[in-house]
Amino acid sequence: MPDSRVPRRRRFLVCEPRHFAVQYAINPWMQPDIAVDASLAHQQWLALVRAYRAHGHDVDTLEPAPGLPDMVFAANSAVVVEGRVLGSLFHAPERRPESALYETWFKAAGFDVYRPENVCEGEGDLVWTGRYLLAGTGFRTTREAHREAQEFFGVPVIGLHLVDPRFYHLDTALFVLDDDNIAYYPEAFSPGSREVLARLYPDAVLATADDALAFGLNSVSDGRHVFMAPQAEALAARLDGHGYVPVPVDLSEFRKAGGGIKCCTQEIRS
Ligand code: ARG
Question: What pLDDT, on a 0 to 100 scale, did the predictor assign at position 34?
């Protein structure tokens, strides 16, 4: 274990939760009859942005649109690797209009955007490790989209099968710590996919069921600081033991929509 983990400065894209609400149910966390505290959600989101900036990261924002309550979940709209932007095609019709709005932002920021032909939910399911993409399927992003991502980026895409509907996106069950390691919740994956992860990352940091249910795997690491849900206590202790520095940010209101820190964060890798 390195004595001191080194952070790398990141560029993030986020979208203010001005219209955030739970108005439909497209994952098991969403219950439209339970009210969201809009002002608490807003404060929690602002605290996340402040935490990123306080740790030296750049944060860009795009304008939220009325009628798109999940637009705050920026991670789902694209995946960006070495300046190439693979856009999104949402599984749920309710979220489909988000793709074009993010595409417009990327174009204005100087990026070309490739539109996938198959259901593809951006960094929700396509996780860049530094050498290849880990790609979730089972609930949202399809195997066909994995193939499209591989052709588009020209990088290996390693498919992983998600089996628990509570962990419907790969980024609810796994996150990248740095170029060498990841953290994940094994039970969210099929037996074969678990074996793949164990072969690729024999020293991975494993999370408990409680960590995963607290959205502890929906975290963002800069290589040293891990922006993570404070409720994922066992995971925080394990990360600390591996030399990472947990930075607690509570996004509890967003859990009502099945989202957390990573869901609210798109990383722009130039
Ligand atoms: N309600 C949203 C959905 O079901 C939550 C998305 C969370 N985003 C994520 N990257 N896991 O699509």
Answer: 87
Residue 144 φ/ψ, nearest 5 degrees:
-65, -40
Q: Is 231 in the pocket of ligand 1 (CB under 6 A)?
A: no
The pLDDT, as a whole number, for residue 1 is 61
Query: What confidence score (pLDDT) does residue 3 get?
Result: 62
Q: Which of 77, 166, 220, 263 maximizes ligand 1 atoms within 8 Å of its Cβ, making it the mutation to test the pocket?
A: 263
Give residue 255 CA to ligand 1 midpoint distance, Å. Answer: 9
Distance of CA 29 to the CA centre of its chain: 16
| Residues labelled catalytic | 169, 263
What structural domains and CATH numbers belong to the chain? 2-267 (3.75.10.10)
Both tokens of 97, joined, read: 């209009």
Protein residue with its CA nearest to atom 8 in ligand 1: 263
- Distance from the Cα of residue 235 to its chain's centroid: 17
Check residue 33 and give its pLDDT. 86
Give the pLDDT of residue 4.
86
Helices (H), the chain: 38-54, 98-108, 143-153, 191-200, 209-213, 233-241, 252-255
CB count in 10 Å sphere of residue 3: 5
- What's the gap in Å between 99 CA and the centre of ligand 1? 14
- Count the alpha carbons within 13 Å of 96 in the hemisphere toward its beta carbon: 8
Q: Which residues of the chain have pLDDT under 70?
A: 1-3
pTM of the model: 0.97
Q: How many distinct helices (H) and strands (E) make up the chain?
A: 7, 15
Asked if residues 47 and 23 have their Cβ atoms less than 8 Å apart, the reply is no
